[in-house]
From TrEMBL:
This is CaiB/BaiF CoA-transferase family protein. Residues 1-20 are annotated as: Disordered. The keyword Repeat does not apply. It holds the Pfam family CoA_transf_3. Keywords: Transferase. GO terms for molecular function: CoA-transferase activity. The keyword Transferase applies.
Amino acid sequence: MSIPQDAAPSPDDRALPSRGPGALAGLRVIDLSRVLGGPYCGQILGDHGADVLKVEPPQGDDTRAWGPPFRHGVASYYLGLNRNKRGTRLDLAQPEGREVLMTLLAGADVLIENFKTGTMEKWGIGWDVLHARFPRLVHVRVSGFGADGPLGGLAGYDAAVQAMTGIMSVNGEANGEPLRVGLPVVDMVTGLNAALGVLLALQERAVSGLGQFVEASLFDCGLSLLHPHAANWFLDGRRPGLSGNAHPNIYPYDAFPTATAPVFLAVGNDRQFAGLCEHLGVPGLAQDARYATPGQRSVNRQALREELVARFAALDGEALAQALMDRGVPCAPVLSVDAALKHPHTAHREMVVEIGDYQGVASPIKLSRTPATYRVAPPVE
């Protein structure tokens, strides 16, 4: 079985000229992963210059159908995770497909996969086999819970892991029910940690000459997100609960209504609190014993909230947020997704990518000499 022709760039790739080679230029990545965590890792590497070949099963990545909306018959969910990748399809359950994969891996630096634990081993291409044949290969596995232990080998899904790792137990209004965070934060941070693991392994390979196995599990990454709730619990043993928008340790760090749009205050020190009080025309409030220190403001948060809500009631939210930011008091209007993506600063930071009719959110990692480049739209075939 020969290497599929679509493993090479095609006219449909709609490539744009590159502004530079990228920090990872020359790195070759085979991305066998599907859905979110693994593909997100691959896109990070691709944005920074790696040559990423996405290998999908014959029926394609499941997320191609996760819509609407769709473009060219492909769901936005898939398009948001797979730019800067070339595409092909292989049936790895068949010997012929695995033979082609071995040919591809002969020239690769990194393999990304998120099959259910044991699948690669069942196919005879687990870590031990691959390391023996390709000793420099960095093998990255995104898994739900790792390979062993009480939950080892089980499949993991973002929302279920949010529930199991305590994230939902602290997300929601104080008088409401636990809520899933409104974006797949566990999957995304797992993809980020997988990409970080790749870079760590490559750095070590430069010394040892050997690749290694890198694992990022959703369960581990979900637990890693529990700051400061875990740190608080380790110190005082008190179970954290639902706190709405308010920060458990500092105040005013909360959303507040205004005459127009709500704003979010993120006041973390005495100087910022004094600036807030001066802007509101009540400088003496910063000297009130109940609010004079961060600890006292946190303890007396309900009374302080009532003071601020009363003073914000007649103010325009966006004007208030801008005025406070101008004087160094952290504050922001609560914007919708479309408003955030159309914000002038979003454009200034070049955070929206366009490749032909594809649009996506750009890499947030800014390098001065080797910036991210956007060369290839997600494979649609």
